[in-house]
Amino acid sequence: MTDRTSNAGCFAGGGAIYGLGIIGAWVFFFQQADAFWAFIWAFFQGIFWPAFMVYEVFRTLVE
């Protein structure tokens, strides 16, 4: 039996948008990397950069 009050599937699109943001950030940062450690740093930047962008957007909306 399904629970009609559950909205678990409602927010699935947000994960897809965040995933596209990570892929886009990886493309951008990997193009600028020129050494081994720069590629390692680009990997972590690609993961966390979309989260910082969302945080900044929310912060500007509140102000």
From TrEMBL:
Transmembrane segments: 7-29, 35-58
UniProt KW keywords: Membrane, Transmembrane, Transmembrane helix
Record protein name field: Uncharacterized protein
